[in-house]
Write a structure and sequence with these properties.
With 404 residues, the protein is an alpha+beta fold. It has helices spanning 3-28, 36-45, 67-76, 88-101, 104-116, 230-246, 257-266, 273-301, 308-330, 332-335, 356-363, 373-384, and strands spanning 121-124, 140-144, 147-154, 165-171, 182-188, 194-199, 208-219, 223-224. The chain is built from twelve helices and eight strands. Helix 7 (257-266) packs antiparallel against helix 8 (273-301). The longest helix is centred in the last third of the chain and has 29 residues, at 273-301. It starts with a helix and ends in a 20-residue tail after the last helix.
Length: 404
C-alpha cells in the first residue's frame, strides 16, 4: 500500500469514527427532545465542539478540516446551532489565544463557558491614540504584589456592554520601545473600576462602546504569555480575528451578493448592458472571495493562520462596500429610506436582516474594524511581497520618550 493510500484510509477511518461519535451524541441527546443548552454541553464534553482542540477542552486533537464532518452530520439531524456562533470574539479570537498561550488552569476555566456562550467576551485593544498604531497603547498596568493596577481608556469595543470577560493589551514597561513593553491579560468586566459607555454609530445603533479603566485590579494569574510578550500574543489574536472576519465558510451566492442578484433577477426594469457588467463583476469578485476563503481554511488545517488572513480581511471590506453601493444604485427607492434609527445595543451584526441603507452604512466600518485596510495592505506588502517597509522613527525609542 502506498503512502497516499494509507493516508486516505486513515482519513476515512477518522471520518467514520467522528460520524459514529456524532451518532452516539444524537442517540443519547435527541435534538427534538433535548434542551439546547444540555445538548451543547454534551457536544462539548464529547469532543465535538472544535475537533482540533485537545481532548478535555471540547476537541479530539484532530485536523481542523474534520470539523466539517461533525457540522454536516449535526445539521442533517436538526441539531441546535451553537449559540457561540453569535459571539465571535470569544470563539474566533479569545479561544485560540487562550489555547496557544494560556496555562492549563486558564484553558480549563475559560474555554468551555466561552464556547457554550455562557460567558461573552470583548476585546480591549484600540485606544483613542492607538488604533492603526496598536503598539502605541497607553493603558498602563503597574505591578502591585500579585496583582496589576490598570488605568486607561479603550474604544470601539464590540459587545463590552454584555461581556463577562475581555482580552486586554496594556503597557507594563514604558522604558522600552513600544512593541517590547506590552503584556496581555484577561480582564473581568465586572471588576470595580470598569465603566462601559455606548458609542452611537452612523447606523443609529450602539454596537460599539468605549471602556474606561480606573484602578482596576487584575491578578497576575489572569496574564496570558510572559510579561513583555503582549505584542506577540496580540498578533496571534489579530491573525485569528482577521480569519474570523474574512474567512467564514459560505455557499455560492450567499451573503450580500445575494441581495444584488435577487434585485437583478426580480426587477427587469433595472437591467442594462452596463448594469449587467457591474453585477457580474461583483458576483465574480464574491465567488473569488468565497474560494479564497476555502483555500484559507485549508491552510488553517495544516497549522496556524498566516498573513493570508490580512489579505482576506481587505477583500472582505472592499467587497462589502462595493456590493452595498451597487445595491443602493439598483434600488434607489430603498436608498432613500431607512428601516430603524432606534438606539439599540446589539451583540452581533445582522447585515442581511436589515434594509439596504443599513448595509451601505454599516459596511463603511468594515475597512476600519479588525485592522484598517491601509494597515493590512502594509502587512501584505511588507511581509508577503517583501517590499521595503515604511520608515519608523520610533522603532528603537523608549515608549515614554516618543512625542504624543
Amino acid at each position: 500500500m502506498t503512502e497516499n493510500s494509507k493516508n486516505t484510509e486513515n482519513t476515512e477511518n477518522t471520518e467514520n469514527m467522528l460520524r459514529d461519535r456524532v451518532g452516539e451524541l444524537l442517540r443519547a441527546h435527541p435534538p427534538a427532545t433535548t434542551d439546547p443548552v444540555a445538548f451543547h454541553r454534551a457536544r462539548f464534553d464529547a469532543g465535538l465542539a472544535w475537533v482540533h482542540f485537545p481532548e478535555g477542552l471540547g476537541g479530539l486533537g484532530l485536523p481542523r478540516d474534520l470539523q466539517d464532518v461533525v457540522d454536516t452530520e449535526l445539521r442533517a439531524a436538526g441539531a441546535p446551532v451553537n449559540p457561540s456562533s453569535h459571539i465571535g470574539i470569544g470563539v474566533g479570537m479569545a479561544a485560540p489565544t487562550i489555547l496557544a498561550f494560556g496555562t492549563p488552569e486558564q484553558r480549563s476555566r475559560y474555554l468551555r463557558p466561552l464556547w457554550l456562550g455562557e460567558e461573552v467576551w470583548c476585546q480591549l485593544f484600540s485606544e483613542p491614540g492607538a488604533g492603526s498604531d496598536l503598539a502605541a497603547v497607553a493603558t498602563r498596568a503597574v505591578r502591585d504584589g500579585d496583582d496589576w493596577i490598570v488605568n486607561g481608556q479603550k474604544v470601539w469595543t464590540s459587545s463590552a456592554h454584555v461581556a463577562r470577560f475581555a482580552i486586554l493589551l496594556a503597557r507594563t514597561d514604558p522604558d522600552v520601545p513600544k512593541h517590547r513593553g506590552l503584556s496581555y491579560f484577561v480582564l473581568d468586566m465586572s471588576a470595580p473600576g470598569v465603566e462601559v459607555r455606548p458609542l452611537r454609530q452612523i447606523t443609529g445603533e450602539a454596537e460599539f462602546n468605549e471602556v474606561f479603566l480606573t484602578d482596576v485590579r487584575v491578578p497576575d494569574t489572569a496574564r496570558l504569555g510572559e510579561v513583555g510578550d503582549g505584542w506577540k500574543v496580540a498578533n496571534a489574536t489579530l491573525s485569528s480575528e482577521r480569519v474570523a472576519i474574512g474567512g467564514d465558510q459560505a455557499d455560492r451566492e450567499s451573503g450580500m451578493i445575494s441581495k444584488v442578484a435577487a434585485l437583478w433577477r426580480d426587477h427587469p426594469e433595472v437591467r442594462s448592458a452596463a448594469v449587467h457588467d457591474r453585477v457580474m463583476e461583483r458576483w465574480v469578485a464574491a465567488e473569488v472571495f468565497r474560494l479564497a476563503g476555502a483555500r484559507l481554511r485549508q491552510r488553517l488545517a495544516t497549522g496556524a493562520p498566516g498573513f493570508e488572513g490580512a489579505a482576506m480581511k481587505v477583500m472582505f471590506a472592499d467587497l462589502a462596500q462595493s456590493i452595498s453601493l451597487l445595491e443602493l444604485e439598483l434600488d434607489p427607492d430603498g436608498a432613500l429610506q431607512y428601516d430603524d434609527w432606534t438606539l439599540v445595543r446589539p451583540v452581533s451584526v445582522d447585515f442581511l436582516g436589515r434594509g439596504p441603507g443599513y448595509r451601505y452604512l454599516r459596511a463603511k466600518g468594515n475597512s476600519i474594524e479588525g485592522g484598517t485596510s491601509e494597515v493590512l495592505r502594509n502587512i501584505v506588502a511588507e511581509r508577503v511581497l517583501g517590499l521595503p517597509g515604511e520608515s519608523r522613527v520610533d522603532k528603537d525609542v523608549p515608549w515614554k520618550k516618543v512625542p504624543r
